[in-house]
From TrEMBL:
Matches recorded under Pfam families: DUF2848
Organism lineage string: Bacteria, Bacillati, Actinomycetota, Actinomycetes, Micrococcales
Official protein name in the record: DUF2848 domain-containing protein
A GO term, aspect molecular function: catalytic activity
């Protein structure tokens, strides 16, 4: 009898040098989560022209397979039209502490035209290995920078204050209403505007959160295209 894959356990180094762990029970990807919903609607219209289905409401929240929460240096993809998205991740660790770290939601852009939820389940959410206590930065997210880059030369493709997105406090209320503000929950924030002049379909992706007091947390990974299937 085959067994189901076990839920992943992620480890984080905290600023004081201690370690936090979370066994991921629930993974969510938020979408269309910018605070300026007029800009969000304009973005939805742009995506619709590319064939991406429009959501019925915003912001969105997609349940994702928990095993896709990964701390990895390599993401395997099936073709050349996939890319990351710089995001923050809200983590409720095994002790019930609410942590903030960086994440990069790697997304299949071809599959996205058929269904956003499908595309989110096609590749991992790459999660940082360091984290902050959310309470330590909750009152200054306007001074925390979220950025994304591509390629070996780390060309910046995304850059904005973390509070350009709906804040973790908003999503904590949503999780509480759903009965999911519990240890083992990881929620990825949705992303910020991407520079259309930079090629997102790169062989490396990275993202970072930076705070003047607590320093920098980043992820950086190689994007590896698998061999063509025999079919």
């Amino acid at each position: 009898m085959s067994s189901q894959p076990s839920n992943p356990t992620l480890s984080f180094e905290l600023p004081d040098g201690s370690e936090a762990t979370v066994t991921v029970q629930r993974l969510f990807n938020a979408g269309y989560a910018g605070k300026n919903q007029e800009e969000v609607r304009a973005h939805i219209e742009e995506l619709a022209e590319l064939g991406v289905p429009a959501p019925t409401s915003t912001p969105t929240l997609f349940p994702i397979s928990p095993y896709l929460a990964q701390q990895t240096d390599r993401v395997y993809v099936q073709h050349g039209r996939t890319s990351g998205e710089a995001e923050w991740a809200l983590v409720i660790d095994d002790e019930g502490r609410e942590l903030l770290t960086v994440a990069c939601d790697h997304t299949d852009r071809e599959l996205e035209t058929h269904g956003v939820a499908w595309s989110k389940n096609a590749s991992p959410d790459v999660i940082g290995r360091r984290a902050w206590l959310y309470s330590d930065v909750a009152d200054r997210l306007d001074r925390v920078t979220l950025s994304g880059w591509v390629g070996e030369d780390r060309t910046v493709i995304q850059n904005a204050p973390a509070d350009a997105l709906l804040e973790p406090s908003y999503w904590l209320e949503v999780l509480a209403e759903r009965g999911e503000r519990e240890p083992g929950t990881v929620l990825i924030s949705g992303t910020i505007t991407m520079d259309g002049g930079v090629d997102q379909f790169a062989d490396r992706w990275g993202a970072a959160l930076e705070d003047a007091e607590l320093g920098r947390i980043e992820v950086d990974y190689e994007v590896v295209q698998m061999a063509a299937p025999i079919e």
